[in-house]
C-alpha cells in the first residue's frame, strides 16, 4: 500500500482533487497557471515543498487537450527533477483514440504520449475507461484502468432506470464494455455496426434489427464527442421499438450541442461520470480512484 503525502491539481481539476484528498485524508494544493496574451503560460506550485514526496497529481486532459497535455508534461518534469514520486490521476486521457496507424503516415499519438510521460518521471497512472486495450498496452508504467461501466451500472441499478434492460454498444469495438455492463445488470447485450470514414471522419451506423421491442435499452460507450454515433444509435433503437433509451457514457465531451441532439433523437436520459464535468455528470469517480490509490494499484 502506498503512503501518499499530498494531492496536487490545477484549477480545472480542483473539484475532483479536493474530493480525492478528503477521502485519502491528505492535504490538497493547487498549481497556479498564468497565461500571456500570445497563448504561452507559466505555472507555479502553491506548495513548492514537493521534493522526495509521494505526489498524487490530478490532471484532466480536456478542454484544449494540446495545452492540457503540455501542462501535464511540464508539471511532471518539474516534480521529477525535484525528487518527487508521481502518481498521475488522469481521469480522461486525450489522444487515446489514435492507438495505431489507421492510414499510412499517421502517428499513433497515445504511444508517443506514453513514452513522454515515462520520460518525465511518472511512476504510475490511474485512469477511467481508456479508449482501447491497444492504447493501454502502449504504457510501460503501471496503469490502473478503472471501469466507468461498473460505476454507471451501479447508478442505473440504484435509480431503477431500466426495469427491462438490454445493453447496446454503438459499435463492435465497445462490445466487451457493453457485455460487462450487461452482466452487472443481468441483461442481454448486442452491438450495432458502425463505420467511420478514416479520411473524412464521417460516421454511419447500419440499421440493425436488434431485439429491443418493449425493452429499456441502455447504450454504453466510453465517450461522446459530437454525438453523431449516439444520435444514430438512439434513432435505430427507438425505430426497433425500444420502450426507453438511456445513454450511459463515461467521458462526456458533448461538443456541438451533442446532449440536446441526443435527447431530441429520442433518448430518455443521459448519464455520464465527472471525469469531465458537464450537465449530465451524475456519477462521481473520486471514491473509486481513492480506493484504487489506497490499494496501491494506482
Please render the helix and strand layout as text.
Elements: E1 6-10, H1 14-24, E2 27-35, E3 41-45, E4 54-58, H2 65-81, E5 85-89, H3 109-119, E6 122-128, H4 133-136, E7 143-146, H5 148-159, E8 165-169, H6 175-185, E9 189-191, E10 194-196, E11 203-205, E12 216-224, H7 228-239, E13 244-252, H8 258-264, E14 269-273, E15 281-283, H9 286-294
Parallel strand pairs: 1-2, 1-4, 4-5, 5-6, 6-7, 8-9, 8-12, 12-13, 13-14, 14-15
Antiparallel strand pairs: 2-3, 10-11
Helix pairs in contact: 1-9, 5-6, 7-8
CATH topology of the largest domain: Rossmann fold
| CATH class category name of the largest domain | Alpha Beta
Low-confidence stretches: none
Q: Could you give a short account of the major beta sheet?
A: 7 strands, mixed
CATH architecture of the largest domain: 3-Layer(aba) Sandwich
Approximately how much beta-strand content do the residues carry?
25-35%
Biggest sheet strand order reads 3-2-1-4-5-6-7
**Gross morphology:** globular
What value does the Rg take, in angstroms?
20 Å
Explain this structure to me?
By secondary structure, this protein is α/β, with parallel strands linked by helices. It folds into two domains: 141 residues, Rossmann fold (3-Layer(aba) Sandwich), CATH 3.40.50; 135 residues, Rossmann fold, CATH 3.40.50. The protein is built from nine helices and 15 strands. The strands form three sheets. It has a seven-stranded mixed beta sheet, with helices on both faces. It has a six-stranded parallel beta sheet with strand order 9-8-12-13-14-15, sandwiched between helices. Strands 10-11 form a two-stranded antiparallel sheet. α3 links the parallel β5 and β6. The longest helix has 17 residues. The chain starts with 5 loop residues before the first strand and ends with a helix. The model has no long low-confidence stretch (mean pLDDT 93).
